[in-house]
Amino acid sequence: MRIVLVHPAGSNWMPGKKDVSATANRMAPLGLLSMAAYLEREGHTVFVHDCLGPKASPKPDVNVDAILKQQPDLVGFSATTSGFPDAYAMACRIKKQAPGVEIIFGGVHISALGARLLEDFAQIDYLCMNEGEQTLAKLANGTNPGQIPGLIWRENNRVVENPGQAFLPDLDTLPFPAYEKLAGFPKGYNLPLFSYIKAPGATMVTSRGCPYQCSYCDRSVFKSQFRYNSAEYIYEHMRYMRTRFGIRHLNIYDDLFTLRRGRIARLCDLLASRPLGMQFNCAVRVGHTDDELLEMLKAAGCLMVSLGIETGDPDLLEVHKPGVYLDAVKETVRRIQAAGLRAKGLFMMGLPGESVESIRKTSDFVMSLGLDDMNMAKFTPFHGAPVWKTISGQGAMEEDWRKMNCLNFVFVPSEIGSRQVLDRLYNEHVKRFYSDPCWRKKFTRRLWQHRHSMWRMARHLPDMLSAMRSFENPPGEKKPA
To answer: Which EC number(s) are documented for this chain (predicted)?
Structure first.
């Protein structure tokens, strides 16, 4: 079978402002690349079309033409919430031009909402729930739809929801993602500015699932099971990236990279004893690091460690990220930096229960940590997150899927007067962090290390200036009390 897997452009920025997200960070669609490699191993001809790729057109019709040029029997879309409207619009165009092509949707938005999507969106033939490799392969292999676990489909205009597909028990049986199917990879794909020293860079995932239940996190696809690649598999994957594509820096986007200490210790031993000439970044959770492990990460080539913190208000932390405490966060940041690693804090503004006071408390806490970098997301209540069930009555919600990308405030907590207040507080915090003299001094000392990022900024200076202006408050707007 001829299959095209599509990563839709979606909505990745703020309405009314120029989308510069690809300039700041263009990530490879790893889920699609994993499925492409799996399907090829099953004997199918697979193409990957990344609508956010460096060589893709911004025009939907041009992307549809490129998809149909491959003469597919099946087209699969992987959709986030903000990407779903764009993906469905493309599916409608495909059906109009080639009615015989079958359309399947998968991804986090599909796994969260399930059968209602097939009821509401007539041009979709199938939904792939949860983990997609086995379900999609069985469909492509010609298995009767009624016999495919994890598939939602139509029979005589009736929506049928099959039992769920069992998760792959051993992730080491998966082939490496088919990076080579991306036009312009790796140089056309870039890591977040100033998050790396060596170039080119790429991304990797070495585990699936998370046993924790943070209120805001959508676990619809991989659930709460935690499965992971072995240290040996990860090392060979990294070596493949280095030798095949010349990759010199990897951002590892596991939620809980260090949850199984033994595998990370073994990986660090392999990387230290048989260096690949690569650096990497990873994320940890408070309580899953110790001084010895941090020193091993440093010796293995780790540059920066990200830490999910979310808020500096202990009452909000107890509700939304139970088990994490501010004193432990401070100590973890201190130990990360003491090991010679950079510490990046990940935060979220606008959580249910948030107030002007709690936002200012968080901003003060951020500044007290002495972080090397910081990311402040705008809280977005996704359908598959635990908080979705309780969000009603806690504030004003605008369920506009295109805006649900953590870059727009679609939810305003009851304790805060308006979206304008949230935007102002957000902008003030971002400017406060990056204007801090201590942070600027630290950044300036490292500037030459980041010449690749500086060169990229210079090449896209108008876009960078446009992004900076996005964090300016409208003149004359009244500040929150």
So the answer is: 1.14.13.81
